[in-house]
Amino acid sequence: MIHNSTIQSFLLEQLPLQEVHISGNSNHLQIIAIGEIFFGLSRVKQQQIIYSSVASYITENHIHAVSIKVYTPEEWNRARKLHADTSMSY
């Protein structure tokens, strides 16, 4: 079993990302990646960047399934603010 911190460190070393958040386990890993590298790219291309980086973990059966969300730093700040605003309204 591979640890989430291993995947997080690997992505931060391989790609110019500002932040990486990993949750879940090797059966289903959720990756949130934040970086300027995604600016101007389609959502599919953004996800392909992350997927291709972790593909070896998938083919070696360290990861069974993965969901990927990517943000530019500006998108991430808006998403966090939106989440904080909606959380406070309950």
From TrEMBL:
Under the heading InterPro entries, the entry gives: BolA, BolA-like_sf, BolA/IbaG_stress_morph_reg
- Domain of life here? Bacteria
Q: Which Pfam families match?
A: BolA
Q: Which Gene3D superfamilies match?
A: BolA-like
User: Family per UniProt?
Assistant: Belongs to the BolA/IbaG family.
Q: What is this protein called?
A: Acid stress protein IbaG
What organism is listed for this UniProt entry?
Candidatus Erwinia haradaeae
Q: What broad taxonomic lineage does this protein's source fall under?
A: Bacteria, Pseudomonadati, Pseudomonadota, Gammaproteobacteria, Enterobacterales
